[in-house]
Amino acid sequence: MLIILDRDGVINRYHGEYICSVEEWLPIASSIDAIARLTRAGHQVAVATNQSGIARGFYDHLILEAMHAQLERLVEALGGRVDCIVYCPHHPDEDCRCRKPRTGLLEDIRDQLGLDDLHDAIMVGDSRKDLEAGLAAGCQAAALVRTGNGRRTEKELQTAPLGPVTVWKNLSAFVDHFLEGAGH
Question: Among 4, 128, 142, 167, which residue's CB has the most CB atoms within a 10 Å radius?
């Protein structure tokens, strides 16, 4: 099965400020371990992240790629892997196809991994736009984590429900439940 993750607030700490360097990219240790556990159990993991800081001039593609290389090194050190990382570098006003809640990033993941569709995928995020993108792209489910923007998003979902969304303390708690249900 494919698990698609948002980055900021799900994999790394996020407090609403742009993360502009590798030094500012601080992983959530339990999330790194959770990714490794998923892939060691035979599942694929992809990352889909909006990164408008590039369009805003806060950092460039090379810095972002260095952050992602750090993520991959940390996961590989625990015996796991990240199968695919895609990002939207555009400003929200650019009306691109890839910025979540649009589905372009998830379609790119589908194509890069050679999948026909995303019906066997689960989208995990900390914001409504992550969940909306996953459900609109045809993922079988969406999961909200309470890290990052998750607590605020959970409150929003109480007044404006989205559909089949489960809520978890963090990525590790989601993975615990998922792997238990998958029999691994």
Answer: 4
* Structure token pair of residue 84: 């695919």
Catalytic residues: 6, 8
Three-class SS of the chain:
CEEEECCECCCECCCCCCCCCCCCCCECHHHHHHHHHHHHCCCEEEEEEECCCCCCCCCCHHHHHHHHHHHHHHHHHCCCCCCEEEEECCCHHHCCCCCCCCCHHHHHHHHHCCCCCCCCEEEEECCHHHHHHHHHCCCCEEEEECCCCHHHHHHHHHHCCCCCEEEECCHHHHHHHHHHHHCC
pLDDT of 102 over the 60 cut: yes
Q: What is the pLDDT of residue 165?
A: 94
Q: What is the mean pLDDT of residues 27-46?
A: 97
- The residue to which tokens 């990352």 are assigned: 47
> Considering the chain, what percentage of its residues have pLDDT values greater than 90?
95
